[in-house]
Design goal:
alpha+beta, 7-stranded mixed beta sheet, 4-stranded mixed beta sheet
Length: 208
């Protein structure tokens, strides 16, 4: 028997998705001047396997933002910058990164309360950046002109079943802002959804 599928709209989301105490995280929405593509939003593609645990990576293969859990003694903005440095191999640039506007908060389906921040990167980031192989399969540069031109379309996406939603056999699709960008250097359509879609949509409004 196939599992029940329930769709949760953005309006219903606050009633079902709530932060779990102690689960705090932060993400960066970084922009850099790319030598070929011009002003570009920098995103990552998740690995399929979590290099730390050997298990399947959360959001395996998805296009996501740099980010992770806030460590003891850190502010949210400090965590966003540290995660950006760690996941791109550019810790040496941390002193040159410029934190920008706080873009808002998003509660993930796992109960993390996530703060997002705009970040301005120095040009040499493009030369130095390398994916952290345990978490990041690829770093991509999406031209800001393409990101701004793309429509923000609320779309439903499947999320791993969890018993605190509908039971062990339940499958849940959550509606979230979704942005599809076709990179000029590839025929592939890059899709930002969930946390990434929300933060980039906020960034587009705030950075005009």
């Amino acid at each position: 028997m196939r599992p029940l599928v329930r769709r949760v709209s953005m309006a219903e989301r606050p009633d079902l998705v709530r932060p779990v105490p102690g689960r705090r995280a932060a993400v960066a929405v970084p922009v850099v001047s790319h030598p070929r593509w011009g002003e570009s939003l920098v995103v990552t593609r998740r690995t399929e396997v979590n290099g730390h645990t050997g298990g399947r990576m959360t959001n395996a293969g998805d296009i996501v933002l740099f980010g992770g859990s806030i460590e003891a003694g850190e502010t949210a903005s400090e965590a966003a910058l540290r995660e950006l440095g760690e996941e791109s191999g550019t810790i040496s640039l941390l002193g040159d990164l410029r934190i920008g506007e706080h873009l808002g908060t998003w509660v993930t389906e796992a109960g993390f309360l996530v703060d997002g921040f705009a970040v301005a990167l120095p040009d040499r980031f493009v030369v130095l950046a390398r994916p952290e192989p345990r978490e990041v399969a690829e770093i991509a540069y999406l031209p800001v002109s393409q990101v701004r031109a793309a429509q923000v379309q609320p779309t439903y996406h499947r999320v791993d079943a969890r018993d605190h939603y509908l039971g062990d056999e339940a499958a849940v699709e959550f509606e979230s802002p979704t942005i599809r960008v076709r990179h000029p250097g590839s025929s592939e359509c890059w899709m930002l959804w969930g946390l990434a879609g929300f933060m980039v949509a906020r960034w587009r409004v705030r950075s005009r």
